[in-house]
């Protein structure tokens, strides 16, 4: 049965993309979270290069609607951070922790997106980099491209690319995840030591579903540029909420909750290598596309047992209620409060949890890895409910 996210024109597993790239060279570490290249930039056999491209996705539509409704330009800094962190935290998963260069690509409809918005995004990108450097993460803004493509883009799309080179000996490959590994999950919600506001944990995945089940139909009528008219279900928004509705405990309104910037875990991971040798971490998984089933793309012949023990943040429970979806679909579309998983040795679990808490980020011992006796699967339990995800390959 097709899930709601797919019906809205989005994809959890990005089957078409994976089919398109299946015959491409996988780099020097085929099982790694990102493609890793030899040191093309420096020609040093002891170094590797990583480049990664991603963006804020349709979260920029939420920023557009909120800005149009309130005139608040600050929401565009959130979009700049989303575009950076969706790259940065993927690269963390292969072991890189410093000397990142970020470039941005902005495609806009000039008729609707004026210079002040572009300025806010570009300045926001620099501010995010400056803030990360103040917390020990050496990342630098290398400029980018802004294109007026109103015939292609209805409003605005904000993407970034991050590149870095680092020692080959620091490389982490998810191929090493094996039975006996323990799983520690880092929370995406709350207020981290390096954040100025409470974070809802929403990040930049599943936003298409969230928009369509939460926002009232008036948004479709007033801002037709903010919808895809070909959605078979409603042709637009079918929820009951205004972005300015005060329905979240820790946010001024729904819009601020949905626009919480994607949290980076880079300060935590950089500090991690000071207390635990990299050889003791078998893999790091960034729960973005595919969320709590994402691990299945990187393992074979194992069973992942997860106890989803944390209290799911309210932004996700509201989406679940309004979308009328079960936990299986919810946890495959959204990170639901835990966005980074570390696969480690048993006697390192408490160290990782304690370190994370030093940054005011909750961490949880989620479970373990075992033999599957066949195809890989993730078994999840939450309260009195259980469900499984099976390797899609």
What is the residue-mean pLDDT, rounded to a whole number? 92
CATH topology: Phosphoribosyl-aminoimidazole Synthetase, Chain A, domain 2
Helix count? 12
Helical proportion? 25-40%
CATH superfamily: PurM-like C-terminal domain
Shape: globular
Tally of DSSP β-strands: 12
Your description of this structure?
The protein has one domain (4-390): PurM-like C-terminal domain (Phosphoribosyl-aminoimidazole Synthetase, Chain A, domain 2, Alpha-Beta Complex), CATH 3.90.650.10. Strands 7-9-6-10-8-11-12 form a 7-stranded mixed beta sheet. A 5-stranded mixed beta sheet has the order 1-2-5-3-4. 48% of the residues are buried. The model has no long low-confidence stretch (mean pLDDT 92). The protein is globular. The protein is 29% helix and 22% strand. The chain has helices at residues 4-7, 15-21, 59-70, 75-92, 115-134, 207-214, 218-222, 254-258, 266-272, 314-323, 327-333, 349-358, and strands spanning 37-38, 47-55, 100-108, 139-148, 156-167, 182-187, 281-286, 302-307, 338-344, 363-371, 377-382, 385-390. The protein is an alpha+beta fold. The chain starts with a helix and ends with a strand.
How is this structure best summarized?
The chain has 393 residues and is of the alpha+beta class. It contains 12 helices and 12 strands.
Descriptive labels:
7-stranded mixed beta sheet; alpha+beta; globular; Phosphoribosyl-aminoimidazole Synthetase, Chain A, domain 2
Write the layout of secondary structure elements.
Layout: H1 4-7, H2 15-21, E1 37-38, E2 47-55, H3 59-70, H4 75-92, E3 100-108, H5 115-134, E4 139-148, E5 156-167, E6 182-187, H6 207-214, H7 218-222, H8 254-258, H9 266-272, E7 281-286, E8 302-307, H10 314-323, H11 327-333, E9 338-344, H12 349-358, E10 363-371, E11 377-382, E12 385-390
Parallel strand pairs: 3-4, 8-11
Antiparallel strand pairs: 1-2, 2-5, 3-5, 6-9, 6-10, 7-9, 8-10, 11-12
């Amino acid at each position: 049965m097709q899930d709601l996210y797919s019906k809205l024109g989005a994809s959890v597993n990005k089957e078409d993309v994976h089919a398109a790239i299946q015959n491409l060279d996988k780099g020097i570490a085929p099982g790694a979270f990102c493609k890793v290249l030899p040191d093309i930039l420096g020609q040093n056999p002891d170094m590797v290069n990583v480049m990664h491209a991603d963006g804020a996705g349709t979260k920029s539509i939420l920023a557009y609607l909120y800005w149009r409704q309130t005139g608040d330009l600050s929401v565009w800094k959130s979009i700049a951070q989303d575009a950076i962190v969706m790259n940065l935290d993927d690269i963390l998963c292969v072991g890189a922790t410093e000397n990142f260069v970020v470039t941005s690509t902005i495609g806009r409809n000039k008729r609707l997106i004026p210079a002040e918005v572009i300025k806010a995004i570009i300045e926001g990108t620099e501010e995010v980099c400056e803030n990360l450097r103040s917390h020990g993460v050496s990342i630098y803004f290398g400029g980018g491209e802004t294109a007026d493509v109103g015939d292609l883009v209805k409003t605005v799309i904000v993407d970034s690319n991050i590149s870095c080179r680092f020692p080959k000996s620091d490389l982490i490959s998810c191929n090493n995840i094996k039975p006996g590994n323990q799983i520690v999950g880092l929370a995406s919600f709350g207020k981290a030591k390096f954040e100025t506001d409470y974070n809802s944990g929403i990040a930049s995945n599943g936003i298409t579903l969230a928009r369509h089940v939460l926002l009232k139909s008036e948004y479709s009528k007033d801002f037709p540029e903010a919808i895809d008219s070909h959605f078979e279900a409603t042709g637009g928004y079918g929820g009951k909420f205004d972005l300015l509705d005060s329905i979240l405990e820790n946010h001024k309104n729904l819009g601020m909750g949905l626009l919480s910037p994607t949290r980076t875990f880079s300060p935590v991971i950089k500090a991690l290598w000071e207390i635990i040798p990299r050889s003791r971490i078998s893999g790091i998984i960034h729960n973005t596309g595919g969320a709590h089933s994402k691990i299945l793309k990187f393992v074979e012949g194992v069973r992942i047992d997860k106890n989803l023990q944390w209290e799911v943040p309210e932004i996700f429970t509201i989406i679940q209620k309004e979308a009328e979806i079960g936990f299986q679909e919810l946890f495959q579309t959204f990170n639901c409060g835990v966005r980074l998983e570390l696969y480690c040795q048993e006697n390192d679990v408490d160290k990782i949890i304690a370190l994370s808490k030093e940054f005011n980020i909750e961490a949880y011992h989620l479970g373990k890895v075992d033999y599957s006796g066949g195809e890989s699967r993730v078994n999840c339990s939450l309260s009195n409910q259980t469900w499984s995800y099976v390797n899609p390959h």
